[in-house]
Amino acid sequence: xxxxxxxxxxxxxxxxxxxxxxxxxxxxxxxxxxxxxxxxxxxxxxxxxxxxxxxxxxxxxxxxxxxxxxxxxxxxxxxxxxxxxxxxxxxxxxxxxxxxxxxxxxxxxxxxxxxxxxxxxxxxxxxxxxxxxxxxxxxxxxxxxxxxxxxxxxxxxxxxxxxxxxxxxxxxxxxxxxxxxxxxxxxxxxxxxxxxxxxxxxxxxxxxxxxxxxxxxxxxxxxxxxxxxxxxxxxxxx
Length: 238
Prior knowledge:
about 240 residues, two-stranded antiparallel ribbon, 10 strands, about 15% strand, globular
């Protein structure tokens, strides 16, 4: 996989000092009840990933982002998962969440860009515009369908990812990775497309790149010790 960055051509936001990482991006996260859910451990995962050739990392919560920022200079895609009353989306749903993870050191802000209901007073186009103009950060739109992908690109997202394919009511009957969705996004969008979700080996990651993704985000297959061990134990029956 290439280890470089994807430039944003003719950017109208010259204050944004970042490019989209290409090739392998490693998602360094852990369940809240896991010993791995510690800023020091998450930062160690991230630094190891970058040391071994990853072009960037994806990190959840301001505390974890701040810890990772102290360890690496490579791009950080920041998110903040929030469960808000009456709101279906949960990945960086509000501008205040984006502002917090930007202040912690994120270079790119990933947001839930599905067509589900957003927090009261928030809309995707305004959120993206605020992240650009007030925070000076690029925006990664996490989507589940081609309709959401097109809407996110039209709203100003700098890159769109297949992150939520298989995780929403519209796609719950499908399992990630969404290679068909990925191919359609590459064909129809004029912004860089990232494949995220369900990548379970280097061969799958290569397929995503062959289909036109500029980058592949891998989480569980690299950093998901809790899920991996549970799966082994379940299959072994001991």
